[in-house]
Amino acid sequence: MSYNYDLIVIGAGSGGISAANLALGLGKKVALVEKKQIGGDCTWYGCVPSKALIKAADVAHKIKNAGHFGLKLDDSSLDSQNVMAHVRAVRESVYEGETPEVFKGMGIDVIIGSPRFVNNHEIQIDEKTVSAGSFLISTGSSPYKPPVEGLDSVPYLTNETIFELESLPKSLAVLGGGPIGTEMASALNRLGVKVTIIEKGNHILSREDPELVEILTRRLIEEDVTILTNTEAIKFAGNGDGISITVITSRGETSIIDVDSTLVSVGRRPNVSGLGLENAGIEYSPRGIKVSDKLQTAAANIYAIGDVIGSYQFSHVAEYHANIAVPNAVLPIPFKKRVDYSNIVWATFTDPEFAHSGLTEAQAKKKYGDKIRIYRHEYEKVDRAKTDLARIGMSKIITDRKGKLLGMHIIGERAADLLHEVQLAKSMGIPFHKIQSMIHIYPTYGDMIKRPSVKAFVEKLQNNFFIKLAKKLSGK
Fold first, then answer.
1. Is residue 388 within 8 Å of 427, Cβ to Cβ?
2. N-to-C CA span, the chain
């Protein structure tokens, strides 16, 4: 049977775009279907606008603290009311490289509309039906709305609406202390918004190592962000032009917080509704589409990637998925590629920045007991950090006794970029102590990895049998 396309990709976010490009590169006829705008959450509501806002906040912070660098500014006032217009302009500049015309010029057909499966080889898009030998679903996720009394009665924000603001509110409650919530709290506070984080757990960024989270928490509090942990919002109500939020602590104490606006950031839900998945024999639930480790759905010719499968919800993971799913879907390879999350990595772009790979200290101790080694190095000991007045933070590297990397966590300047060196070693199975033998440029933040690697190398030498014997014989 002949089909209109070899592969139809449903959802043109970062994962879908990567998938379509890869399939085209493999010589396949490809269509990219998107019901909104190409670029998806990353371009419009996530990575791009949030990082533009974070950069603007960083500039504002540096101007405010110019005196620390021996500089004096005549005007110390901050007018941030045009910052969202700047963010949207950056977003549009990124989209210029993602328009339908760009992809059509490459040889990828772009279809704008709402797709629905007719069967496992056909989808209907509005009044049009198209077919493909294989499909790849990459429809992403949407903000989760918690069932809190009165929330629907107030004009709350999510990551999908906050960047449409024409001006910033004077005060903001952030519901949820996860990555999105803490990034926005950190940035908006530096842009003059009085921010309160309401977090149900006992600390923000629950997936991160608590020792490093404490460093970020202290920094945010020092900058006048209010952080309410072990606290849950139980009621929202309008209050003139603002919002009143009733909160309750884990001890049962209640209080009311009055703010101009609220950002709801308590998680995301896969976009599975309206696709007619059951018509194609695809198994799914509110938690996402069920896939195998080959990213194959219950329908053998249909694959799914990214947020919609309910795994790690990051753009780079969706791209990783695309590199696995596309060859599996369109090539006649006998041994299909499988996902491997053992080297998953992510970052939270607060200030200081947070980067994470592998096990936390608690997880490593639970799995390996006392057979682990922990190497810490503080930014305040690094010369480049001293020159940049970026002394807050540390690297924390966790290995087994042989130097196998188990977990790497960095909080501080350029943490996400720094993590890649040690992440490469982890992915390639290179013991941590071997990193010290590589020549690192001075002065750079690379010392945040090199110096603890030197510690690991020295420790390895000290535990060497022959060196121990030589010390014993020499009486030292």
1. no
2. 81
Which helix (DSSP H) or strand (DSSP E) does residue 449 occupy?
Answer: helix 447-462
From start to end of 72-149, where are the E strands? 109-112, 115-119, 122-125, 128-137, 141-143
- Per-domain residue ranges for the chain? 5-39+98-143+269-341, 151-266, 352-465
CATH architecture of 151-266: 3-Layer(bba) Sandwich (3.50)
Task: Write the CA distances from 402 to 131, 188, 457, integer angstroms.
Answer: 53, 44, 11
Strand, helix or coil for residue 398: strand
For 352-465, CATH number out of 3.55.50.30, 3.30.460.10, 3.40.640.10, 3.30.390.30 equals 3.30.390.30
| Cα–Cα nearest to 407, from 431, 385, 423 | 423
The one-character DSSP state at 334 is S
CA–CA gap between residue 56 and residue 191 (Å, rounded): 8
pTM of structure: 0.93
pLDDT of residue 333: 85
Dihedral of the CA atoms 146, 149, 155, 159 (nearest 10)? -10
DSSP 207-268: TS-HHHHHHHHHHHHHTT-EEE-SEEEEEEEEETTEEEEEEEETTS-EEEEEESEEEE-S-E
Q: Give the pLDDT confidence of 74-132 residue by residue, as tens digits.
A: 766 788 889 999 999 999 999 999 999 999 999 999 999 999 999 999 999 988 999 99
